[in-house]
């Protein structure tokens, strides 16, 4: 006997994410999901972002890792903003943040009094791409030490994200990284994708990144 | 690897799809899986086997129906099936495309059978199990 079902496997996650999105919209809060492989420089990038924008926006950060609270401590030192660390080993060592986990972490934050919520996802170019966490926009960070063909190897991640940050560009003189090939690989999997070349260390391209965030926050308020 | 999380969600969908009050065994689960999803079929099978123990999905086979990546061109409105990047229109070569298929992860149907009531005394005892 056959039973017809036709149901999305991840519908429970999507329902939670949609409910969160409604709450964030009601609060006029812009939510950014930042994803990358481990070691791409997400946390350093966000430290500089907090230091630059904390005086202009009311910001909070949720940071996901499998273990340790190191990232939360680093981010807390950058600016006086609330930082919530999620360690997914309490959730079975998950390699990504699911919607209900972010909802729990956000429960203690004053959402009504915030302009920007940044979620630093678990370092992983595969799994986080599959899970909606109620965000408005997604950013993927790819460091120039990782190889220019990563977008072709992880097409879903680059497809679901709105902006790609090519980080650590201060290292380019020491590498054989082919920027043109990398940009082409990104356009191959996500035609028209916005690409920013940044260095959190030298500051190169960071103003453009801050400008992108400010524009998104302003658009959400309207 | 997030296949375990997906397997747990899959089991939940199966449980909620069975009519209440009936003793049914799920023989197979038909899953439509887009080529652009980040799911490894063999890993999902293994996770379902492990996580399904003691649930209605115990022993259920997982059958995959692969869904190709389909692009729809905003300029010429043609549809293109793509095997791999670049994701551009196959008709006009344009890059203004929307991905209209390839991200599916949908339980299509279940093949079930009734479990014979074991409480009923049976003279011709089955040698199964």
Q: Which secondary structure elements does this structure contain, and how are they paired or packed?
A:
The complex is a heterodimer of chains A (222) and B (129).
Chain A: E1 2-8, H1 11-27, E2 30-36, H2 42-53, E3 59-65, H3 70-78, E4 83-87, H4 99-106, E5 116-120, E6 137-143, H5 150-153, H6 155-160, E7 163-167, H7 179-189, E8 194-197, H8 206-221
Parallel strand pairs in A: 2-5, 2-6, 3-4, 3-5, 6-7, 7-8
Helix pairs in contact in A: 2-3
Chain B: H1 3-17, E1 24-34, H2 41-51, E2 61-67, E3 69-73, E4 79-82, E5 97-101, E6 105-114
Parallel strand pairs in B: 1-2
Antiparallel strand pairs in B: 1-6, 3-4, 3-5
Structure description:
The complex is a heterodimer of chains A (222) and B (129). Chain A has 222 residues and is an alpha/beta fold. Chain A has one domain: Rossmann fold (3-Layer(aba) Sandwich). Helix content of chain A is 37%, strand content 21%. Chain A has eight helices and eight strands. Chain A has helices spanning 11-27, 42-53, 70-78, 99-106, 150-153, 155-160, 179-189, 206-221; strands at 2-8, 30-36, 59-65, 83-87, 116-120, 137-143, 163-167, 194-197. The relative contact order of chain A is 0.18. In chain B, helix 1 packs across helix 2 (41-51). A three-stranded mixed beta sheet of chain B has the order 2-1-6, with helices on one face. Chain B has 129 residues and is an alpha+beta fold. Chain B contains two helices and six strands. The radius of gyration of chain B is 20 Å and the shape is elongated. Chain B has helices at 3-17, 41-51, and strands spanning 24-34, 61-67, 69-73, 79-82, 97-101, 105-114. The two termini of chain B are 34 Å apart. Chain B has a domain at 3-68 and 102-114: hypothetical protein PF0899 fold, CATH 3.30.2320. The model of chain B has no long low-confidence stretch (mean pLDDT 90). In chain B, helix 2 (41-51) links the parallel strand 1 and strand 2 (61-67). The interface between A and B is large, with 37 and 37 residues.
